[in-house]
Amino acid sequence: MADLVFCEPTELYNILNQVTKLSRLIEPNYLCLFDVRSKREYDESHVITALRVKKKDNEYLIPASVDLECVKYCVVYDSNTSSMEMFIPNATTDEEEDEEGDKDSSNQRGQDLVQGAAVEFGRVLTQFTHHPVSILRGGYERFSGLYHFFRTQKIIWMPQELDEFRPYPIEIIPGKIFLGDFSQACNPKVQKDLRISAHVNVSMETGPFFVGDPDKLLHIKIEDSSESKILPFFRHLCHFIEIHLHLGSVILVFSTRGISRSCAAVVAFLMHKKQETLKRSWTHVKNCKNNMRPNWGLVTQLLEWEKTILGDFVTDISDPLY
């Protein structure tokens, strides 16, 4: 039986935006997203690609079209579940409440312990899959509040429509730092939806970003080559991002394809911000963006940056992880 775990909104956002050459949503065994709210709520709006869960004779039905054993990500949400357990009040008399007052404080007075709909259905799913089943923390209300652009009324998604889906930049620090590619940085809708107000461009390309306001754009002009030197820019990069975080800006770090130079830049900033090893920062970015792949020259410079920050080399970059 699989585990039941919580999934933060930023995790689901990043799952929805993973890419290879195209969006990973086109892969039949990549993501199965279940909505256990009422039909009325689902019809009003739901998260893209979500399937509505139905009941028969008070039992949840598992969609026959889904091979749960092979699905990598199985995520369930209801309206607002934020705990694996929930309490609802009982009708009790004053006399009963007085009697309850002497009981152990761990028992909720005048309340019953019940599961939220997402947790209830999630426990059913754990019997059919080998991967953990995730419960979206805060449910639809929290997710749609953060990422309103992923609301839809569309029920059936054709393969061609998923082929044409344009992913958003990956979220590295929720609501503060995003990691993307050049086309996303040039997309006005992406800028508006994510409220991007500052850019770090780690590529040779140029674009019309904040014309007349150079303080909101840092352009590090380097080729995607093992010979390119990014280490000399790390202090300026970290200073620029820190200033904009202090100002409350939302920052997009990007490069041509968003998998090498920009990833190295984000790893370097996290190492600086958290005073942590290359390995820990690398793992965080890798968990957010599955296809990150900085070239070897960038990796060796990140190791030098680790020595600058921590005073010594700590990470073993001969590990296949790098």
Automatic annotation (TrEMBL):
| CDD domains listed in its UniProt record | DSP_STYXL1
Which domain of life, per UniProt?
Eukaryota
Mention one GO biological process in which this protein takes part, according to its record: positive regulation of intrinsic apoptotic signaling pathway
Q: Which residue positions does the secretion signal occupy?
A: none
What Gene Ontology terms describe where this protein resides (cellular component)?
A: mitochondrion
InterPro entries reported in the protein's UniProt record: Dual-sp_phosphatase_cat-dom, Prot-tyrosine_phosphatase-like, Rhodanese-like_dom, Rhodanese-like_dom_sf, STY_interacting-like, TYR_PHOSPHATASE_DUAL_dom
GO terms, molecular function: protein phosphatase binding; protein phosphatase inhibitor activity; pseudophosphatase activity
Per UniProt, residues of the Tyrosine-protein phosphatase domain are 168-311
One Pfam entry for this protein is Rhodanese
Q: Report what the protein is called.
A: Serine/threonine/tyrosine-interacting-like protein 1
Q: Which organism is it from?
A: Octodon degus
Lineage of producing organism: Eukaryota, Metazoa, Chordata, Craniata, Vertebrata
Gene behind this protein: Styxl1
